[in-house]
Amino acid sequence: xxxxxxxxxxxxxxxxxxxxxxxxxxxxxxxxxxxxxxxxxxxxxxxxxxxxxxxxxxxxxxxxxxxxxxxxxxxxxxxxxxxxxxxxxxxxxxxxxxxxxxxxxxxxxxxxxxxxxxxxxxxxxxxxxxxxxxxxxxxxxxxxxxxxxxxxxxxxxxxxxxxxxxxxxxxxxxxxxxxxxxxxxxxxxxxxxxxxxxxxxxxxxxxxxxxxxxxxxxxxxxxxxxxxxxxxxxxxxxxxxxxxxxxxxxxxxxxxxxxxxxxxxxxxxxxxxxxxxxxxxxxxxxxxxxxxxxxxxxxxxxxxxxxxxxxxxxxxxxxxxxxxxxxxxxxxxxxxxxxxxxxxxxxxxxxxxxxxxxxxxxxxxxxxxxxxxxxxxxxxxxxxxxxxxxxxxxxxxxxxxxxxxxxxxxxxxxxxxxxxxxxxxxxxxxxxxxxxxxxxxxxxxxxxxxxxxxxxxxxxxxxxxxxxxxxxxxxxxxxxxxxxxxxxxxxxxxxxxxxxxxxxxxxxxxxxxxxxxxxxxxxxxxxxxxxxxxxxxxxxxxxxxxxxxxxxxxxxxxxxxxxxxxx
Length: 567
Known about the structure:
- The chain crosses the membrane at residues 6-26, 38-58, 64-90, 136-158, 178-195, 201-221.
- By secondary structure, the protein is of the alpha+beta class.
- It has helices at 3-26, 35-50, 63-74, 76-94, 100-128, 136-158, 170-197, 200-240, 246-258, 288-293, 301-309, 364-395, 405-422, 436-443, 445-461, 486-502, 532-548, and strands spanning 53-55, 58-60, 265-272, 277-284, 313-315, 336-343, 348-356, 426-433, 468-471, 476-482, 518-525, 554-556.
- The chain has 3 domains: 3-229, Arp2/3 complex 21 kDa subunit ARPC3 (Orthogonal Bundle); 246-392, GAF domain (Beta-Lactamase, 2-Layer Sandwich), CATH 3.30.450.40; 405-556, Alpha-Beta Plaits.
- 58% of the residues lie in helices and 13% in strands.
- Helix 17 links the parallel strand 11 and strand 12 (554-556).
- Mean pLDDT is 82; it is low at 164-169 and 560-567.
């Protein structure tokens, strides 16, 4: 277990046990004869918890008005016991399956915050002399100190997970909660005065408008969050129109989603034809290394099952879902999951997955939003695939599958500039199939195309991984060798000539295996010429010389070891 996790557990249980200790010490001071009044106030407080306004960064409630009324009327023991009980009961009734440890922590920190706020209240009251007469400063000090201590304790509890929830803005949480306390503070004072002057029912009636306002605020926050979702969708759609790589687009989608749907793990998988599996193209998770090392195919585990069904799935609690029995990997560390296949008309292009540490972290609303975002991600993947196909067709020769002449010359120019900057040589080899016209006459153009493909395959196999090969003309090939001087270029050309000469290939309809031979001309930049055109001309002249010598030979534009030299 990591050191940070141990410290977090120790902190959590320290707060819980301190809260239990404080409640035990207050137990003797509770007046059980006031049980009916305290139960009524606890009921109002519990209703306020049930109407809690949920925000991405926390929850808002008018319960502080009840807490302040109880404190001013019956003191610390009553408010501490009631607050702890309401927090415990409210989060189990109205929560979303939070772990018991989190619920106990919230109850414990509530009791601790009341105790510290009480100390500040009495200290300010003694200094100002306003405690007994509902002085403004002691009440403000009590509210302010509870507010600060409460947020500090919660902040420390959430600290280990904050880097996985960047949209949880602490400043915004402080602002909204402060507005709630500013509203509840005078309301609590009025409820206290009405209770003292009239009866408990008067204070309870005054609290009803507060609950109404809280309900209206809840609707407003829902509209605000909807607006955030629309903004996030707009930014994702706009990003799709920009010329950026697929990886950057998918990373942006994960970041945009996090602003409206908090998660700990976010992954977008893309199908790879080469690896015959779904590969993580964008990952945002503490388990990133494990996720990138593990691929999956259709039908493999729960995620593979979702691919086969092609339907979005939401998992509220992986520990309770029978489909996760026997599962392994990072998804077993997440309590909640949303898995959305990225589907086009005929195939699954990828998979969009979000995971959270807590159960019930995602709702049907989240699923609807993420399905829309998943559709946009599918568009991005499909556009990238189409662009790659178009780019491939624009760069390659349709018969042989190697580069075409146009793209080869573009790369040649770029390699010449790079070689000039680094002061390195750059060799070009032109190869021509000997007597290819006669070969076509004898065997026909289809066999001729097969011969071109075989020659291209042999040449490719005997070149380095970073060398370039292109079909330069009808039966002519060109190879570009970065960093190769005359000797290396000549040896490479001779190796290519020998490999083609030895190679036999069979063709349907032809009884005997066929064989072809090639002639090669070699020139080197910048020793033979300092320009692209000049190097091509020198290589062409060398190739012409090789053909003139009867073919199946190599000629350099500059003499090496007695090989023909001319200008």
